[in-house]
Design goal:
- The chain is of the alpha/beta class and 375 residues long.
- It has two domains: 14-77 and 307-374, Arc Repressor Mutant, subunit A (Orthogonal Bundle), CATH 1.10.10; 87-296, Rossmann fold (3-Layer(aba) Sandwich).
- The protein has helices at residues 14-24, 31-41, 44-57, 69-82, 132-147, 160-167, 190-199, 216-227, 241-251, 269-276, 285-296, 320-329, 337-344, 348-360, and strands at 85-88, 107-112, 121-125, 151-154, 173-176, 201-204, 230-233, 255-258, 280-281, 335-336, 364-367, 371-374.
- The strands form two sheets. Strands 1-2-6-5-4-3-7-8-9 form a nine-stranded mixed beta sheet.
């Protein structure tokens, strides 16, 4: 049974929340691996106990770091002192659309007026080096969408992001952080983050003290698009994080909108390119509202997670020859897990176990669409 796929939607106990935090904060455990471990072992407690053996069988010379009880308790206590709430995947307060993506974070740390997460959301993102016209349009669009009942999602960056947040403070806005709540980036946006917290929500999947690095921003971008019914790109150069957000939105089945710009302005090169590829053109809020309204009328069909129960029998350890066959089929080019099952002749459970071993040894990378590759 899929432990993360029950339909009741109940809260974790404090003990379970502590175990979940320990597991997701442990080395080589990302959202996809977390889900695989929970479903394989029936809960975080069983998965934590299995981590050293899995890593050893995957070829690690020593087990990866496992988050201790004390470390997790300190993070939870620090969050409580600040009024930050950890919400688990499938709990009622967890945003419904975010649950739909391939790799939803098992725990999100939320600070602010959580009711904003219950409203339909539209993301507005764009160039950090925004033009005056681009920033003005982002403000107008965010304000009008807010008046129409939408909460605006963005990434707290300079330029378009900041303009969209400021214009939607009164109606509700979500700031998705690349780092932890203790490290607002850029630092000069701390006052803006404080205002967002009063009128909306600051959201992070990272540890409280995590200082964002370059690779954390694409990871954040998947949450911006994942929260939203649609993503509006206001300005974007040919190579920009906003185009990464647009690509992730398409992969997640979200609507992608682009604001046209002058062919002479490099900040419009990316958005004009999106329009050529079929993105919906936006010149006013009605363009977004008319396209999104039919989507909001459809029910969101997502499973709700149930509390962990006694761990199922994960089955026998894979035989050496099975493990060798599966590893031999892997390489730097991503492959589908179904192909590994078919070509190796091993059972799906055996393939999943070997993949967990490799990942916890730091030798495997999970990619979009359920594909895997050797590091």
């Amino acid at each position: 049974m899929n432990v993360l796929g029950h339909a009741d939607g109940v809260a974790l106990t404090d003990e379970q929340r502590l175990d979940w935090l320990r597991l997701i904060r442990s080395a080589h455990v990302g959202p996809r691996t977390f889900r695989a471990l929970i479903n394989h072992y029936g809960g975080a407690r069983g998965a934590l106990a299995a981590l050293p053996g899995l890593a050893r069988r995957g070829g690690a010379s020593q087990p990866g770091r496992i988050c201790t009880i004390e470390e997790a308790e300190r993070e939870l206590a620090a969050a409580r002192r600040r009024g930050i709430v950890f919400v688990a995947l499938g709990e009622p307060a967890y945003p419904a659309r975010l649950r739909m993506i391939d790799d939803p974070p098992p725990l999100i740390a939320l600070h602010g007026a959580l009711a904003a997460l219950m409203s339909p959301m539209i993301a507005i993102v764009g160039s950090r080096n925004a033009s005056a016209a681009g920033a003005k349009f982002a403000e107008r669009l965010a304000r009008e969408l807010g008046e129409a009942g939408f909460v605006i999602v963005s990434g707290l960056a300079r330029g378009i992001d900041a303009a969209a947040h400021r214009a939607s403070l009164a109606s509700g806005t979500i700031g998705v952080l690349a780092g932890g709540h203790d490290h607002i980036y850029p630092a000069e946006h701390q006052p803006l983050a404080d205002s967002i917290r009063e009128h909306g929500v600051l959201l992070s999947e990272m540890p409280m003290s995590w200082e964002p690095r370059g690779r954390d921003f694409p990871r954040r971008n998947r949450l911006i698009s994942g929260l939203s019914a649609g993503v509006v790109i206001v300005e974007a150069a040919r190579r920009s994080g906003s185009l990464i957000t647009a690509r992730m939105a398409l992969e997640q089945g979200r609507e992608v909108f682009a604001v046209p710009g002058s062919p002479l302005d490099p900040r419009a090169e990316g958005t004009n390119g999106l329009l050529k590829q079929g993105a919906a053109l936006v010149t006013e809020a009605a363009d977004v509202i008319d396209a999104i309204a039919p989507i909001l009328g459809r029910p969101i069909d997502v499973g709700m997670q149930e509390p962990e129960r006694n761990a199922p029998d994960p089955g026998p350890e894979p035989a050496s020859d099975e493990r060798r066959r599966i590893v031999a089929l892997l390489g730097p080019v991503p492959v589908e897990i179904d192909d590994l099952v078919r070509l190796s002749g091993a059972s799906p459970a055996t393939v999943r176990t070997v993949l967990l071993e490799l990942e916890l040894a730091g030798r495997l990378e999970r990619q979009a669409g359920g594909r895997v590759a050797l590091v």
